[in-house]
Every structure is written in structure tokens, then in C-alpha cells.
Amino acid sequence: MKRTFRYLFQSIFLIITVLNAQDENILARVNNDVITIFDFKKQFELSPMVFNAASLEEKKKIFLLSMTAQKLWAAEAENFDPLKKPLIKYSLLEIENKLARDILYEEDILKKISISNEELKEAIARYKMKISALVITADSKPEIDSIYTLLNSGIPFDSLLVNRPEFQFQTEAITVEYGQMQKQHEDIIFNLAEKSYSEPLLTEVGWVIFYCANRTINFENTSKSSDEVNLGAKRILESRKIKEQYTAFNKEFLGGVEVSADVKSFNKFTGLLWDEVRKLEVDDNKLTGLSFYEIYGTKNSFTEDELQSSFIKFESSPVSLIDFIGRLGFEGIKTEAADLNSFRIELSRWIKNFIRLELIAREARKRGYNKLPAVVNELKMWKDNYLYTLAISSYSDSVKISEDELNEYIKENTEYDLPAKLYKVEGLITPSLEKINRVLIGLDKNESFPNLIREIAEPGDSLLSLDFAAVDKLGEFASTVRSMIPGDIYGPINTNNSFAIIKLVDTSRTINNLEIGIESQREGLKQDLYFKKLQQLLDSKTVELANKFGVEINLDLLKNVSVTNLNIVVMRSFGFGEKMLAAPLINSQFKWYEDWLESKKVLP
User: Fold this and answer.
1) Is the pLDDT of residue 436 over 90?
2) Which of 94, 176, 255, 572 has the fewest CB atoms within 10 Å, counting from its CB?
3) Residue 288: is it exposed, middle or buried by C-beta count within 10 angstroms (0-12/13-18/19+)?
4) Mean pLDDT of the chain
């Protein structure tokens, strides 16, 4: 009995120790949920926050309070039966599939890669070498055999090459470095002695004979440290082995599988989507793509029976048309198609890829990878973000502004006997987060903002240039710009299926010596007042939720959390060629905290 008691005591002590250790890593508690140091660091370091006025410590505090607010609203949104909302339902399904597939990729491809010492030694030797090569090509075996016979008779390679069409592309020998060619061809070239040639080889471009002109040291690579050389060679070797294993995986799990889509539904759906694409062309004079709601809205043109019918005809558990539409909506559509036929071809390719990824996801789910803690925790991060967006969107129509309120706001927020403030703003609007990322990286290198956005902008992007515009000309950026000071850069900002990064260059109250009267700014100021009232309403509701669910925030522990602040948009690459934001963008919502502290003082 004494022994049993001792073991019981030790077990309880161990549990308490573990819980205490967990508490030491908790920055905030919301309801039954927590934000750990790991959670905070991960999202903070993967989220861009370009705002020059805030110090790193201020950014950390703002970010933690915003994460806390997000969890509060997410807890509230659980009452709305959120999975009945199509955007949330299909978004979480697709994210879960990506995460599960990524685990499968690691288990069945990455973990099966092994490199022997002999392989690495050979890779390093080739990494340090360059081959100057020439090649003779032929369309048929008889032709290449006749050339090979001439070479064997003693005719120099150069003499034969100079009289052939391919010579115009080889006035100088081709430089071959490790990793540039298919391994089977590279093996042949790197094993050739100087001034020697290979046997005829059949390649994807026809029959070829390789010739090694000379072998030299690759000074660019040999000038690196020993560790860098080893790492560079190893990466190329690993990449090749991954491709080999990837090919073997596809053969095992996808080889011989035939899955088709319902032709009638496909044709009707393609036509509806193309109608939406053409609207974008007409309205915006550019193609930026279709969002979830534009794609999902096509369901209204189908009957309920059509929507529930099998669209992707898997042997078991076929995908219904409505589910396919929703899942396509999550990915969105961006197209450069010039007509319906080319658009149909693009969509056919997308369906083919959808089938491939769905087969892989089903294998991952069969193994239970979607239930692993790593997947569940990552999915929770995204679910919180979607639920937060769902919850606050229900308040967008709650703000009303009377004429008396607007008149009072004008009096309080302007020098009434002076003209209204004008804003000089420049920026980039693009559907590509990668381009926003390139701007942010350039800013970290102290490159010029206007030069960066001009260099990066391409057809389909928009350069924002407002030369001392009134507030009503700022559109959806009005509230953000009015909170900035000259020199501030802010982004990315979600805007109409795209992202924006903007800079407030300067402000003024005159332009060309002409004053701009305040009355002409009523609509802009009304919009600005709307956003202010909406933010106040959201902050007030956040305080209410904090009191409802309970909140604990450890700002002292936050001070000791070391973070990097790179201000870049981080895209995560998944196995099987997929990409997605590494973490959801967090809306800044932190002013509620001080009001909540005040509310705690007066509560009984």
C-alpha cells in the first residue's frame, strides 16, 4: 500500500510539473484555449507588419492582443454553426488536405531518401568541376550511326559539327555543371575523358553524341568553404533522389487510375465561369481572377439534383458538383485565356490536377495523417482566423451615420476655417503575394519604394498614385491612410481579390495654391467616420467577449520572447507542388485591451 501511494504521489507530482512547465510557455488564455510562446513566435515571424511608427516591442504587444481578440471572436463564432458557411467549410477542408498530403510527402518521399558516403563523395567531386561539351544531334538512328562511324574512322568531332545545323548554337562549347542535366546524361559526360565522345544516345530531343572538349575546375564553387561545398553538392543529390522517389510514388499510387468528370456539367460550369471572367475584363480592364463568392455563385444556375450529382467520378465516394465548385472556390481562378475554348482547356488541366491531389489526400486520410497533432494544431490557427472574419462581418451593417453626427465629426476633426487635408499616396495593388513579398524584402535592403513597385508591377497589377488627393478619393484605403504619418508604409492590405502595399508620401492643405473646401469632402469623411464607429463597436464587443469567456494575458512573459522581424510575406511550399500563405494575416485589433482593463475595475 505504501509503495502504491508513493507511485501515485510521484505521478501527481509529475503531472503538476508538466502543467507548470506548460504555464511557463503560455502568453494568453481565452476560454479553454491558449496562445503559447511557440504559437506567438510562429505567427508573428510569418506575418508582415510594415508600420514604421511602431517599435518591435509595441508590435509584439499589438500582435499578441490581436491574436487574443481573434480567439475571442472565434469562440463566439462557434455559436453560428460556422461549418455551414460554404467559405469556411471548403477552406478548412482544402487546408486540411494540404497539410495531410504534406505529411504523406514527408513519409513516403522525403524519409525514404538516403545518401551513401560514396554518392556524396562523387557529388562533391562533380560539384567542383566544369565540363566544356559539344553535341551532335540527329533525327534518326541511321543518321546518328553514320556520324558515329565517321568519328570512329578518325574524323575530328569539330570537323563534323561545323558542317551541321546545330553548330550555329555551339560556336562556343556548352558549359556543363553538376545538376544541370538529367543524371543519365550527366553520368556519361562527366565520365568522358577530354577529347573523347560518347556512343549514340536516344534522348527527348532525338539522337545525340556528346563530346568532352575539356574538364576544368569550377572556381565559383571551389572558392566556397568546405561546409558550403558539401551542402551545395548534397542539395543537388537530394533533389535528384526526391524526383526519383516522387516518380516511384506516382507510379504506385496513381499509375493506371482513370477518373473522369461529367461532361455535361463541365461544359455548363465552364460557360458560367467564363461569363464571370468576361465581367472582370469589362469592369476592370484586366484579368485578376475570380474569388470564392464569384465561383460559388455559379451554383445558382444549377438545379439541386445537378448540384448533388456525381461530378468527379471516383470509383468510391465521387465528388458532387457543389463540393467541386466550393473546393475550386477556395483555390480561386486566375486566367489569361483569350476565349472560351482556351479557358475550357485551362479548367480541364485544373480538374486533372484536382483528381491527382484528391487521390493523394484520400491515401493520407486513410492513414490518419489528418488527425495528427501537427495537422490539427495548424488547422486550428486557420480556423480561428476564418471564424474571426465570419464573426466581425456580421457587424458591418450595424453602423449608421446621421447627418448631425457627420456635421459634428467634421467640426471636431478639421480646422473648419482651413481647407481639408490632402494626401499624397503611392502603392502597388497586385493579386500576387509573392510580389508584395519582393517589395518588403527590397524595403529591408533600404531600396526605394517607388522604384521597387515600378520594377515589380506587371500587366494585371495596378500602381496607385494619388497626388494630394482628398479623403474621398482614397477609397478603401481612407481609414488606413488617415492613421499614417508621412513616410509610413503599410501592407499587405486585402483588397478586392488582390493585395496592396501603400506609402503615405506627404500631406498638405493646399494644392497649386488653391484651397479645397471641407464640404467637398463629406462623402470621404462619412466613410472615415463609418470605419471609426465600426472599430469602436468591434472593440466594445471584444471587451464584452473578454468578460464573457475570460482572458489572461502575460505581457511580462512577452517581453522575454525573442523574435525576428523580417516584414516579409512567407509562402509555405507543400509536398506535391502546392503553395499557400504560411500563416493567416492578422488584423490589428488591440485598443480593446485598455478598455477591458478599465471594465475589470468597475465589475463587482
Assistant:
1) no
2) 255
3) buried
4) 84
The DSSP 8-state label assigned to residue 277 in this structure reads H
Measured distance CA(253)–CA(487) in Å, rounded: 55
C-alpha cell at 74: 472565434
Print the SS3 string covering 199-223: CCEEECCEEEEEEEEEEEECHHHHC
Tell me how far apart the alpha carbons of residues 287 and 283 are, in angstroms, rounded to a whole number: 10
Distance CA 463, CA 468 (A): 16
Residue 290: φ, ψ to 5°: -105, 140
The secondary structure of residue 569, as a DSSP letter, is: P
Cα separation of 191 and 126, whole Å? Answer: 10
DSSP category for residue 494: E
Q: Which amino acid is at 352?
A: K
Q: Residue 149 class from Cβ within 10 Å (0-12 exposed, 13-18 middle, 19+ buried)? A: exposed
Give Cβ neighbours of residue 310 (< 8 Å, ≥ 6 apart): 262, 318, 319, 320
Encode burial over 81-106: b for 16+ CB neighbours within 10 A, e otherwise.
ebeeebbbbbbbbbbbbbbbbbbbbe
Which is nearest to 68 in space by CA: 543, 581, 392? 543
| Mean pLDDT within 360-365 | 95
* Helix-strand-coil split of the chain, %, nearest 5: 55, 15, 25
Q: Can you tell me the distance from the alpha carbon of 197 to that of 202, in angstroms, rounded to the nearest whole number? A: 15
User: Residues 520-529, buried b or exposed e (16+ Cβ, 10 A)?
Assistant: ebbebbbbbb
515 has a pLDDT exceeding 60: no
CA-to-CA separations, 233 to 119, 227, 236, 342, in angstroms, rounded? 10, 10, 5, 42
DSSP state of 194: T
pLDDT digits (tens, 9 = 90+) for 489-514: 887 777 766 788 888 888 876 654 44
Overall average pLDDT of the 284-291 stretch: 63
Task: Give the number of other CB atoms < 10 A from CB of residue 254.
Answer: 14
- On whether the CB atoms of residues 319 and 312 are closer than 8 A, the answer is yes
3-state secondary structure (DSSP) of residue 240: helix
Q: What's the alpha-carbon Rg for the chain, to the nearest Å?
A: 31
Average pLDDT over residues 380-392: 91
As a dihedral over the C-alpha atoms of residue 410, residue 413, residue 415, residue 416, rounded to 10 degrees, the angle is 10
Q: Let me know how many helices (H) and strands (E) the chain has, helices first.
A: 23, 18
For the entire predicted model, the pTM comes to: 0.78
Task: Return phi, psi of residue 257, to 5°.
Answer: -80, 130
Could you please report the per-residue DSSP string of 391-432? HHHTTTTS----HHHHHHHHHHHS-TTSPPPEEEEEEEEES-
* Angle between helix 56-77 and helix 592-602 axes, rounded to 10 deg: 70
Q: What would the 3-class secondary structure string for 138-161 be?
A: ECCHHHHHHHHHHHHCCCCHHHHH
Cα of first residue to Cα of last residue in the chain, in angstroms, is 48
